[in-house]
Structure formats: C-alpha cells, structure tokens
C-alpha cells in the first residue's frame, strides 16, 4: 500500500509541475501579447506607458512622436494589406536606424520613440535620417509603386512634467509639422525644423 501511495505522490508531483509549467508559459505568452504589437513587432502602447511612468534615468532623454503622412489615403488607394506593409516597413526602418531606442506603435499609424543618452543634435539627426530614408524608399504593392513620408515631433523628456504632459508636447510638435507641410522633423518649443 505504501508503494502505491508513493507512486501516486510522485505522479501527483509530476502533474502539478506540468500544470505549473503550463501556467507559467501561458503567462509569458499573455505578457508578450500585451507588450508587443503583433503587426510591427514593436512594443505596444501599454508597454510604453508603463516604461515611461517608471523612467528615471540620469541621461538626457527625448520623445519623438512619428506619424505616417496621409496614411488613410494609402489604405483607401492601395488596400489595408498595403497599409500593413507600410507600417511594418517603417517600424523595421526605425528599429534599424535607432537600435538603442525604445520604440512602440502608439496607435494606428503613430509611433513613439524614446531616445536616451543622446544630444539635441543627435536626436534631430536620427529623426531626420528616419524621415529621409522613408521618404526616399520606393514602396511597391502588387504592380503599383508609390512614395510615403513621415512627420516627427520631438520633445526633450522633462522629469518635472507628467508622462501625459511630455506626450502632449511631442504631439504638439508633430501637429506643427503636419500643419506646416508634413514630411519634416519639428522640435517642440523651437523653430528647429528639418525636412522638405
């Protein structure tokens, strides 16, 4: 009887371990789904909000809000698969150019980049490179080629301001770029502007 009880105990421990391992694996998958945008493989908005709320670096940090210019027209003209291709391409281009950045798909056709330990000149150069390379790329969907541009609004991350206040400043710079011709990089609170 004790041998049977011992075998049952071993079997119970085995099944308990299997169940615990499955729960842990499921939790990892759920966290990944919550923190990673499935289309672009960038961080999600939720992840970025948590990241910035805990951001406490001594290095100078910058926010860059990027928006695909006339994205609705791309979707309406070439279809949503083409729009997805554009978003994915832009995400990968930003990751390649700004490998030390934390980048999220902020929503729809907007992206938020956090650049750390870089000067004002450096952040403008990185954002301008992103803008320039996307603008120069010959997009192709099926047998149709077209161009695409992005506008970026840049704000120095101010730890004295709330997370929302910092985002609003980056968004205001983005809005200025959009209303002054698109396809440009605009620094919040400054006339510094690059682009066409």
What this model shows, in words?
This protein is 53% helix and 21% strand. With 196 residues, it is of the alpha+beta class. Strands 2-3-1-6-7-8 form a 6-stranded mixed beta sheet, sandwiched between helices. The chain has a two-stranded antiparallel ribbon with strand order 4-5. A hairpin with a 5-residue loop joins strand 7 and strand 8. Helix 3 crosses helix 4.
Which descriptors would you attach to this protein?
196 residues, alpha+beta, 6-stranded mixed beta sheet, two-stranded antiparallel ribbon, 6 helices, 8 strands, globular
Summarize the structure.
The chain is built from 6 helices and 8 strands, in the order H-H-E-H-H-E-E-H-E-E-E-H-E-E. The protein has 196 residues and is an alpha+beta fold.
Write the layout of secondary structure elements.
Elements: H1 2-35, H2 45-53, E1 61-68, H3 71-78, H4 80-97, E2 102-107, E3 110-116, H5 120-136, E4 139-141, E5 144-146, E6 150-156, H6 163-179, E7 184-187, E8 193-195
Strand content is 15-25%
Poorly predicted regions are none
Query: Biggest sheet, open or closed, and with what strands and sense?
Result: 6 strands, mixed
Global morphology: globular
| Radius of gyration based on Cα positions | 22 Å
CA-CA gap between termini: 85 Å
Work out the helicity level. 40-55%
Give, in spatial order, the strands making up the sheet with the most strands: 2-3-1-6-7-8
Look at the structure and give the mean pLDDT.
88
Derived from helix and strand composition plus strand pairing, the structural class reads: alpha+beta
Count of helical segments?
6
Number of strands: 8
